[in-house]
Design goal:
By secondary structure, this protein is an all-alpha fold. Helix content is 64%, strand content 0%.
């Protein structure tokens, strides 16, 4: 046989390699996030093994914004391909990549990498995006050395955004030494507006009573969007100064139409601030469903619904979530007045139907069985799931001495429409026979 040297190469193979290289390059595009994500989806759908060495070579030059997608793509490969790639990247010289791959390998079981992570964090560049991405990876790693390294990032002059990112990580990491370090930081001058209230909110969330007194004053003039930064700390505080609760009540009064009103009401209810009840009652009629539902829950938790008459009024609310909550609350008080309204909402359908089916099943009455059987054939899998589990609860309540196995009807949540219809018909026929026997 003659030599094969000089024969033309496979053009399809050349094109495939060229396309793959192009996708790797697009994944690391610095300007176009849509192009990055499109390349990621294409590579993820095929996961060509040849992409792994190309990624290892290209990744150190990627912009920080592209690193997470690239690591996620590598992690989707079988471990015999991904782990060697990650180990090659451990010393690539890019801190954000080194921390990313080290935390992944840590989750694979290599606990020795904690020291490596801590060392990289100690020398991490100060740009916000790099540090933010690093911290997003660290939620899987609980270690005092890492907590110490992140604590060392605290310094005077941090921007509000940088400080917020660091403080929230330390709070979630439950670093026992963070509060003391933050108290020291609070003694330093920082001209940026909002830093002192943020520090104070962190200290309250950590169980400390701050020596500062700026949070209540800040709340007096704070906008809803600014409050979203503080609420994640305040919602975790087990106690708050009465002055802060008063200021938060004023904030709620001024920001009734903002989505942040929901968080404010949850915090006020948690701390039993009943002086906010008049404002909360007004928010039951909010056009924002999330706000109106939060108002209902806050009223309930604050004891603002001890009178059933207010619950009866809410049964007619245009917000179906509120009506369902009112009916469910009445049921817990052994009052089934709201069952008719729930049946009406179940028949109406729409976005609330799944929750309506769940609430309906809690009444455990023969009157709810037929609507639940009908819901077994709903197009929405969430509705079908609530109906199926709800029927189990109802039948166990109605027939405590019988072992009723709904699966014997042939019904499964994953079956096609035809099989579901046949099984639902079997259950309806069985229910009809049960009713005749009574």
């Amino acid at each position: 046989m003659g030599s094969l040297v000089g024969l033309p190469s496979n053009p399809d193979a050349q094109k495939g390699t060229k396309d793959l290289s192009l996708q790797i390059a697009q994944l690391g595009n610095a300007q176009d996030s849509q192009l990055r994500y499109s390349a990621y989806r294409k590579l993820l759908s095929t996961r060509p093994p040849k992409a792994v060495p190309l990624l290892v070579k290209a990744l150190p030059a990627y912009p920080t914004a592209a690193v997470s997608l690239a690591l996620s793509l590598l992690q989707s490969y079988p471990r015999d391909l991904s782990e060697p790639a990650f180990r090659k990247l451990l010393s690539c010289g890019r801190p954000v990549i080194e921390v990313g791959v080290a935390t992944i390998l840590y989750r694979y079981g290599d606990k020795s990498l904690v020291e490596k992570i801590a060392q990289v964090l100690e020398k991490a560049p100060r740009d916000y995006m790099t540090r933010q991405q690093m911290l997003s990876r660290l939620s899987y790693v609980k270690d005092v050395r890492i907590q110490q390294a992140v604590r060392a990032w605290l310094r005077p002059g941090l921007s509000l955004r940088e400080l917020d990112t660091i403080l929230y990580h330390l709070l979630l990491a439950e670093d026992p030494k963070a509060a003391e370090a933050v108290e020291q930081l609070s003694k330093q001058d920082n001209p940026e507006l909002g830093v002192r209230p943020l520090i104070e909110a962190f200290l309250w969330a950590s169980g400390r009573k701050p020596s500062l007194s700026s949070l209540d004053l800040a709340l007096d003039s704070m906008s809803g969007s600014d409050f979203s930064r503080l609420q994640k700390y305040l919602s975790r505080a087990e106690r708050l100064d009465p002055k802060i609760l008063k200021a938060l009540g004023g904030f709620l009064e001024r920001n009734q139409d903002h989505y942040s009103a929901s968080s404010a009401m949850q915090i006020l209810a948690k701390h039993g601030y009943r002086k906010a009840l008049p404002t909360i009652r007004k928010l039951l009629a909010s056009s924002n469903t999330q706000v109106s539902k939060a108002a209902f829950e806050a009223l309930r938790d604050l004891g603002g619904m001890s009178d059933k008459s207010s619950l009866y009024q809410l049964l007619d609310s245009e917000h179906l979530d509120i009506a369902l909550s009112a009916a469910d609350t009445l049921r817990r008080l052994d009052d089934h007045t709201g069952m008719a309204r729930v049946l009406e909402i179940v028949k109406k359908g729409g976005k609330t139907r799944s929750e309506a089916v769940r609430v309906l099943a809690e009444f455990r009455s023969p009157k709810v069985v037929v609507p639940l059987l009908v819901a077994l054939e709903d197009r929405d899998s969430a509705v079908r799931s609530q109906a199926f589990s709800g029927l189990g609860k109802v039948f166990r309540c109605l027939y405590p001495y019988k072992r009723i196995d709904l699966s014997k009807s042939g019904y499964t949540l994953t079956a096609g429409p035809t099989k579901r219809a046949i099984a639902a018909a079997n259950l309806r026929a069985w229910w009809g026979r049960m009713m005749k026997e009574q």
